[in-house]
Amino acid sequence: MDPYLLRKLNRERAARRAVIHLTDLGDGRDRVICEGDPVAGPLGEAVAAAFRSGKSGIAEADGRTFFLNVHLPPARIVVIGAVHISQALAQMAKIAGFDIAVIDPRTAFATEERFAGIDLVADWPEDVLKGRPLDAYTALVAVTHDPKIDDVPLSQALSADCFYIGALGSRKTHARRVERLTALGHTEAEIGRISAPIGLDIGAASPAEIAVAILGDIIQHLRRRALRGTAA
């Protein structure tokens, strides 16, 4: 691999940006494609599909054969609130292959006993996220019902263009949340990205069922997301 391409590939990966190393299997020529780079025709369709799925493989386009080596940042879930839903979601998310962290300043909830083996931080989200910034490959799940805890990370998630943003609460609760986020300077279109009520509408009732609905919603948003540089 050309040293310039290798440096570019490593730079994008270090910055948690999606990238594909594309090789023409006919003549060996290769290039690095960043998410959002224009690629036309059938090859562009194969590249877009690979960015969404995260799967490397062979693609045929315009009479040529290419190998697409896909490098996606590990998708992360950041949960604000160490509640019963979070306990179930944390275990399910690990099984599904997500990195997951739970943040809650309420030490009565954020205990090792309740979240054994989970990345748990008993501190205010705005302080934690200074060292763990959100990005486009992060899902933000806010489930405390407390604006003092939820609102700042929700606002940061909107600014960071997280691929999924969900917030627990009724429509009435969310209407008040919209007012607060609007006061923080977010547009109607930005706030409209929040899944609220949170999760897929599957009639979930128990904390575990709600966790299933949330995880399903996260996976759907990840695999069907609009790629950078394309329309939603």
How would you characterize the overall build of this protein?
InterPro entries: MoCofactor_Util/Proc (IPR052698), XdhC_Rossmann_dom (IPR027051). By secondary structure, the chain is an alpha/beta fold. The protein has 2 domains: 3-71, no CATH class; 76-223, 3-Layer(aba) Sandwich (Rossmann fold). It contains 8 helices and 9 strands. The protein has helices spanning 3-14, 41-53, 84-95, 125-131, 147-160, 171-183, 188-191, 207-223; strands spanning 19-24, 30-34, 57-61, 64-71, 76-80, 99-103, 119-121, 138-142, 164-167. The strands form 2 sheets. Strands 7-6-5-8-9 form a 5-stranded parallel beta sheet, with helices on both faces. It has a 4-stranded antiparallel beta sheet with strand order 2-1-4-3, with helices on both faces. Helix 3 packs across helix 8.
CATH topology of the largest domain: Rossmann fold
Order of SSEs, N→C?
HEEHEEEHEEHEHEHHH
- Tell me the major beta sheet: 5 strands, parallel
The CATH superfamily of the largest domain is known as: NAD(P)-binding Rossmann-like Domain
CATH class of the largest domain: Alpha Beta
Q: Give a count of the beta strands, DSSP E runs of length 2 or more.
A: 9
DSSP summary: helix tally: 8
Name the helicity range: 25-40%
Average pLDDT level: 93
Q: Please state how the strands of the largest beta sheet are arranged side by side.
A: 7-6-5-8-9
Instruction: Please indicate the percent range of residues in DSSP E strands (runs of 2 or more).
Output: 15-25%
CATH architecture of the largest domain: 3-Layer(aba) Sandwich
Please mark out the parts with pLDDT under 50 across 5 or more consecutive residues, or reply none: none
Protein name: Xanthine dehydrogenase accessory factor
Pfam families: XdhC_C (PF13478)
InterPro entries: MoCofactor_Util/Proc, XdhC_Rossmann_dom
Domain XdhC Rossmann: 77-218
